[in-house]
Amino acid sequence: MIAVLKQGTTTQQRDSLCEWFRNMGLEVHVSEGRYKSIIGLIGDTSGVDIGLLESLSIIESVKRISEPFKNSNRKFHPEDSVIDIGGTKIGGGNFQIIAGPCSVESREQIIQVAKNVKASGATLLRGGAFKPRTSPYDFQGLHADGISLLLEAKKETGLPIATEIMNANDLDLFEDIDVIQVGARNMQNFDLLKSLGKTNKVILLKRGLANTLKELLMSAEYIMAGGNENIILCERGIRTFETYTRNTLDLSAIPMLRELTHLPIIADPSHATGLSRLVEPMSLAAAAAGADGLMIEVHNDPEHALCDGAQSITPEQFDTLALKVRKVREVLSL
Ligand code: PEP
Ligand code: MN
Fold first, then answer.
1. Angle (nearest 5°) at CA 329 between 327 and 333
2. pTM for this entry
């Protein structure tokens, strides 16, 4: 990190600032110019509050040279991380498709969809038991019963389960769940992230509706700082001025995150577009952009789905999608 001091800063002011930095455990290098001094800071500057620094009367500008995320940073971990979900690997060339309904609705529904998506090549089953709905009057999920039904579907098909947590108090219910999802709305629920950092569960961290990639990585950092490095990142569309689609799938996030982090990156074209007919083209695009996997909403009867029917594809449509994704993956390996 570099701090440029304003012209006219006294030696005493500069020295007391340097002392402040040293007390934070940083190495300080002062370079004296004819009119201005520049302070170079070496060490872990992630705890330095840039806003506070910039507000000091003697500071002209501050620039970070290295990113504030350390654990997820590719610079310190050049190899792709491969996350092991009970033998199903994702990242480092391993591609997985998570498919299933937006929410678990009944035993028949979840088991039927699980069997269908498995037959088409899905390798994990999704289904929400705790649903973060915009309206409190909408279906909120089956909660503990939903988790039990997911575990029944796992027993029936062998598919590992991914499902969303909204409150750390529910963690006990997730003991046998393979992948705990943190939804877009909770990406910056820092207490939840800290609690998940103390577990050894695989965490699927979805990008917030209006969050930058740096903020996504800082949220991953919250989990990793607690000791849990099993994180999969998910681009699920961000809010823009466009209204034809539910969100805008930020495809460039995939190769950009690939540069910044070693963590696996998947895409969710269902929540990104909100339209079932756009799910296949955007899945293919995400695979072509180098995603490590996809998360797709599949429902046996989308018209009567209790949640997100408009963006849910049928098992038949999923079958075609999975086939085409395999073809795109083949092209990528040429
Ligand atoms: C979901 O995956 O069911 C979900 C609610 O997604 P998001 O958090 O991305 O809106
Ligand atoms: Mn949904």
1. 115
2. 0.91
